[in-house]
User: What shape does this take?
Amino acid sequence: RAKANGRGSFARYDRDMGTEVQERVRLLRNLRNAFQHDRLFLNYQPQIDLSNGRIIGAEALIRWKTESGELVPPDSFIAIAEYSGLIVDIGQWVLRNACFRQISLEKAGFTNFRMAVNVSIAQFRHPQFLDMLEQALADTGINPALLELEITESMAMLEPDYVIGVIHKVKTLGISVAVDDFGTGFSSLSYLQRLAVDRLKIDRGFVNAIRSPAQTTECIAQTVIQLGRNLGLTVIAEGVETETQARLLKQMGCHEAQGYLFAHPLDSSELVRWLEQHRDSGCPLND
Ligand code: C2E
Ligand code: MG
Ligand code: MG
Ligand code: MG
Assistant: This one.
């Protein structure tokens, strides 16, 4: 509401706030509805071993298909799911689905297929998170060594000691942990060491910055790969779009990669078809 002294800018500010809140309320209501009516589903993006082009596994990525058939990208609804707490239920659904998918891939003969699942800090922080994880392992029968949880670096930095504790317990279950969007969250070397994760995922912004051989020595990707290797971690690059990037990443010592160059995120039947096509030969890499 406008102040009594009549400063128009205040009135406008209030009105914009109002519509923004309404927008969020509507988005959350729609999301909740979509979740209840099975309009959320998972896509899977293959991950490749850069040393031999072999397929290691895939990352599960959530999708929302509206009633009108429109696809809403996760970047526009994960934040509100986190803020509202709905991510706890959605995240449990994602985890269980991804584990069941992994099992069905194993049964179809794609053995040792690793499934990576994104986990939000709100899930991590939830008092029943570890029980939920154990339940998912028990109900699906997934080999925990073939399950990986991805937590973003910036989220891990929010509550360092707490996150370190949960990671420790997750690893006790035999599940591995990756730091997602690595390089954007300003974590220190000593913190990384204490985190005791298995894998670093170089943020795709740094991968995108790799453009020509001449720059490789200065690029951040190189620094991140070196850092990961020095800590004895596996390094995976996300958002690899060109053969040049794949070749240079490999030369820089990056172990694994995922990105449009190899495959876009695929729905479950597309994934099976893609895996069948690449079953024997893997993904060709030019050195
Ligand atoms: P992320 O975990 O860092 O996932 C990588 C994102 O990069 C995905 O976007 C993927 O589709 C996209 N991508 C893959 N390859 C390429 C490429 O070559 N070039 C470019 N430009 N992009 C590529 P997506 O699927 O839209 O997901 C966005 C983010 O939403 C994810 O980032 C993740 O943080 C979050 N997210 C997705 N699914 C889940 C989920 O189930 N739970 C939670 N908590 N977050 C999720
Ligand atoms: Mg991820
Ligand atoms: Mg990422
Ligand atoms: Mg991201």
Observations:
- DSSP finds twelve helices and nine strands in the chain.
- The radius of gyration is 21 Å.
